[in-house]
Structure formats: structure tokens, C-alpha cells
Amino acid sequence: MSQSLPYLSTSCLLLRALEIDQAAVLCSLANEPKIADNTANIPSPYTLETARTFIDGLQDKYLVGDLLSLGVHLHETGELIGIVSLRLNARHHYGSLGGWVAAHCRNQGYAAEAARAVMDFGFAELGLYRVGGQCFARNKESARVMEKIGLLYEGCMRAAFLKNGVYEDLLGFAAVRNVWECRA
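^ thats the sequence. predicted structure below, dont judge the formating
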């Protein structure tokens, strides 16, 4: 694995390491109500200190093989619009896909484009064999993104996650390397 976080370019996006001067923007974006509500680990409110701590830890988490997390930036303007990540399990050659896109950039294909790029990197460069993702059953947008990029629906885990005092059903999706590489 490379020593630095990768820089990935797609037709519309740049996926790259976040810089500490982006903490205020990250904080603002992550405080949009649907972000914390639809994710497992993003606190609400999302403070400036939380953003700084997150950014400061990204390189180290990548170096030890725990997490690849990149800022999603628009190619044309460089604007930070979200986060895409793979939680890594080196022992099992597995990655867990996650991420979010700012409210003003949803339904434009950015989430799918970022997810596809980080999955390509995970399979080709990190040697992953399987990449999966989960979302709350009520989060139809995330489920649609995972299906759109070619992850197969594997089932529903009933009441598998306690979120804000409510047991949430989780939908599971995944792809394995040989199927991913053969997709159209």
C-alpha cells in the first residue's frame, strides 16, 4: 500500500485527501440533518473540532490499513461536496463502502461516481476480494446508489442497528472482485 492517500480522478470528481483548512466546510456539510441521520458514526451536531480530528487522523488510519477516506470534490471548481470511504479488513481482503454527498449535490450521480472509483481502487490497488455496503432500510437513496454501481442485494438484517433509540433494519449489498471486473 502506498504511504499517502490516493488521488483519484473521474469524469466529474476529484477524490483526494482532505486538508485541515477544509474543516469548516466539512463541518457545515456534515451538519445537514440527513447526514447524521442516515449514517452510523457521524455525530450530531458535527463540531469543528470533530472535523479537525477526523481530517488529522485520515493519513494514519490509511497507513495502518484501517480506513481509506477521501474528500469528494467537483472537478471543475474543487468544491468539497462529500466523503467516500472504505473501512478495510486486511485479514479478510474486505472493504466496507461508505460515504455521503452534500444536500445540494444529490441526485446528480456524484455518489455513484465516487463509490465506483473507490471500489475500483480497492480491488485493483488494495487487493480487496470483496466490497460490501450497508444502509438503513429507510435510506432508499443509498440503496439505489449501491444497486446502480453493481453491488448485489444480499438481504435485510432486521433490527441490526440501534440508532437514536430505534432498532433499524440494515440492507446489505456486496460485490466480489471477479464479478466487479467483468461488469459491463
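Strands lie at 8-9, 13-16, 67-74, 80-89, 94-101, 130-136, 152-163, 166-176.
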